[in-house]
Amino acid sequence: MNENINLKTLEKKAYHINFQDGIYDIMFGILLISFAVAPILREIIGLGYIFFMIVPAPLFYMLAKKYISLPRIGIAKYGGHRKKKHRAMLIISLITFPISIILLTLTYLGPFQIDVSTALGGYAVPISAGLFAIFICGLTAYLIDFSHIFYYGLIVGLGIMITEYLNTIIEPPINNVLTFSLPGFIIILLGLYTLSQFIKKYPIPTEEITNAG
């Protein structure tokens, strides 16, 4: 019994090392900056701006994990419970990500636009999108056991709503920049600090250590 408890504790500690590198934090910071500049890019390159919203953050994450984290901590194998959670998260991501992109594209193309005199005072779309972002991030935070993602979901979800509200006070794209750029830069700086501490704590093993024994 004690052995099982110890194994679960060790597995949990090993699992949470994956979130000590700050890479998730930097990724979400980049995502927020992408949201901030999206309206500006939309005016310059049209629908091509969507590429800059969905590619840089995941691309950074994959490259940083491959070239910074994995050489230091390797790949751990986890028990069935965590594997089930990760499979569920993968399925949800595969379903929700393309739906989100399609809805985003169609909204800007026109079919899903809601007249300002209709439901929820014309804020039906941003409120729905904001709540959707909070729900998906909250579910992801639960499935991968990383609470930061829920808080970032709140920033994104509330940011979408606040941006639309500011649209009546401040000329776009300044409203977007104000809402998303400041938290984005703060999160990136915090992530970079966390990453620097991670690199100090987990240096890349030397060849002698790797081949020892």
Rg calc: 20 Å
What is the mean pLDDT? 76
Which oligomeric state applies?
A: single chain
Largest sheet: none
Note the topology.
Blueprint: H1 2-17, H2 23-45, H3 49-54, H4 56-73, H5 80-109, H6 124-144, H7 148-166, H8 174-201, H9 207-210
Please tag this protein with its features:
213 residues, mainly alpha, 9 helices, 77% helix, globular, disordered C terminus
What does this structure look like?
There is one protein chain. With 213 residues, the protein is mostly helical. The chain has one domain (8-203). Helices cover 77% and strands 0% of the residues. It is built from nine helices and no strands. The longest helix has 30 residues, at 80-109. It is globular and about 55 Å long.
